[in-house]
Design goal:
Structural class: mainly alpha
Mean pLDDT: 88
Keywords: Plasmid
Number of domains: 2
Strand content: under 5%
Largest sheet: 2 strands, antiparallel
Distance between the termini: 140 Å
Strand order of the largest sheet: 1-2
Number of helices: 4
Shape: rod-shaped
């Protein structure tokens, strides 16, 4: 007796695939902007190194956007390997030399005043 065996139907989505690329409106949302706001400031973003869209599809690479974002703040993401700018220590001041300079400047000022008084008299 032949049975009509119907194979089980596979679910429509077996597992989630994270997208690598996203359209402009999704990227705008990722940056907490509306699409018109994103268009308005896109040239400024590109000037700061924001990833350009793919030439063929016009889609933006999400990982590139994440890396760009982390590169802006190496102090928060040291694991990215980008150097953290260290502030230069203030130059050391030799207080003795500074006092000597001030004393000599005062002596020159007094000498000028005396010279002016002598010329007047």
């Amino acid at each position: 007796m032949a049975r009509n065996l119907i194979p089980p139907k596979a679910p429509a989505v077996r597992f989630r695939i994270e997208p690598a690329y996203a359209p402009r409106e999704k990227v705008a949302r990722l940056l907490h902007l509306t699409e018109p706001q994103f268009r308005e400031c896109a040239s400024k973003l590109y000037a700061r190194g924001f990833p350009l869209p793919d030439e063929t599809t016009g889609m933006y690479h999400l990982e590139a956007i994440d890396r760009w974002s982390k590169r802006k703040r190496p102090d928060l993401f040291p694991e990215t390997g980008f150097p953290v700018p260290t502030p230069e220590p203030p130059p050391r001041v030799d207080l003795g030399a500074k006092a000597r300079e001030m004393y000599e400047a005062e002596q020159r000022r007094r000498a000028e005043i005396l010279a002016q008084r002598r010329r007047k008299s």
